[in-house]
Model the fold of this input.
Amino acid sequence: MSTQVARVEEKLFQNRYLVDQGKPHIVVQPHTTPSKNLLAMTKICPAGCYEQTASGQVEITPDGCLECGTCRVLCEPQGDIVWNYPRGGYGVLFKFG
Amino acid sequence: MIEEKFDAIVIGAGMAGNAAAYTMASRGLNVLQLERGEYAGSKNVQGGILYADMLEKIIPDFREEAPLERHLIEQRFWMMTDRSHTGMHYRSDDFNEERPNRYTIIRSQFDRWFNKQVQAQGAIVISETTVTELVSDAYGKVIGVRTDRSGGTVFADVVVLAEGVNGLLGARAGLRPTPKPDHVALAVKEMHFLPRETLEARFNLHGDEGVVIEAAGTISKGMTGMGFVYTNKESISVGFGCLVSDFAENEETPYGMLENFKSHPSIAPLIEGSEVKEYAAHLIPEGGFKTIPELFGDGWVVVGDAAQLNNAIHREGSNLAMTSGRLAGEAIFQVKSRKDPMTKQNLALYKKLLDDSFVMKDLKKYKDMPALLHTQAHNFFLDYPTLVSKAMENFLRVDGTPKIEKEKASVRAFRQKRSLTGLVGDAWRLARAWR
Done:
């Protein structure tokens, strides 16, 4: 059984979001080389929010965030990221949950 | 935001928060409940199975109105390799009882209903409001909360933290640690819709009967994790989860693991032709008894997932949440009725009630299981499923080989993979952790 190539964008497309424009609720702290855990997020974020840029840093676009907290558990204690919940009413809106 | 001071503020409108708010409001306490979602349930994710008994203790006649999907008459446990599954099924007509024991539910619908019952008991519920921090007095007693609304500070005698597994408030206030990567599992889930008749034919169901499949084995690639398939009225919840620490180490994508699970030859035919309408992710507290934080203090208690109250072995989360919420509500009501202050000493009653309940007794029973499953993940999730599958195939495939030789081959395979000491050791460790 080979790992299926899954496009997470197609999955997120099913969901409802109310994005708080210009107010990202998760911020990656400036760095030159990403930590091991921050780098892992480019693979394990269930919404595929984390990406490594051409220059090697890890960036986040939290628009599709599912607010699960995986990156918080993995990266917040070392100070790699700053994690908050979106403002009330914003973010993912589960129809089923 | 609101000038008056409340008897209690409940943060969150999930199972634990709703249970706590309902219990207190129905006993006449002045309760404010704050929810960051658009409505109660819009941020909540669960597999989701509801255990009737725990809700019955809060709302005895919930079956008359609650949005329930299917009552469960069959459970399948599947041990999987990439191409096979060895299953244990239990199906009983006794589960077709007048007051069924377990149901599948859809959380955003269920929580919305539950929260309406809370409001009917007189609690004030304000949604679309994120609580940003706890407010304490000079002595460190929690006296209220600050929210993201303008002028959004509200006060109460006690704050019930029902903020979920990823609750920030308790951690920020230093009341409990942020969960560790090996104490939480990340699960992803899709909602697959099918015509009701198709679904019922595929799963051999009539009316509102439902089936649950829990599957573990090589599908988690040696990580501690499992997949599930739950039948709803006209949809199937399909999910997959592994410990966050395992995901981080193996760098597998959660959605890739879910796709793998969905394409397994035992799963694919069940969901074939379905329309996917939502994709969700959620953390599940898996650390068990040893990771339960301090549950109460001056002016606060913590309930549900935020307190790591989840029984991973029996896959019970929401019923521990409901029970802890109810008991916290009862304890607060008792302290209040005596006109006593909400001090740490007085709120210890909540812990006492919880210790006397199944919640702590069950979690204590399995206190060694999380660590065992984690450290022995390779054996339990890769080697044994492969060996069992091979033994089953040996047993069933008729090819002229004498049965005694087949039996010997199966035993040999087990002993080669895991020495006799290893096998006995694993059995012993499992039995001890289970006891």
About this structure: Chain B touches chain A through 61 residues (CB under 8 Å). The mean pLDDT of chain B is 95. Chain B has three domains: 6-68+102-177+288-366, 182-285, 370-434. The longest helix of chain B spans residues 318-337.
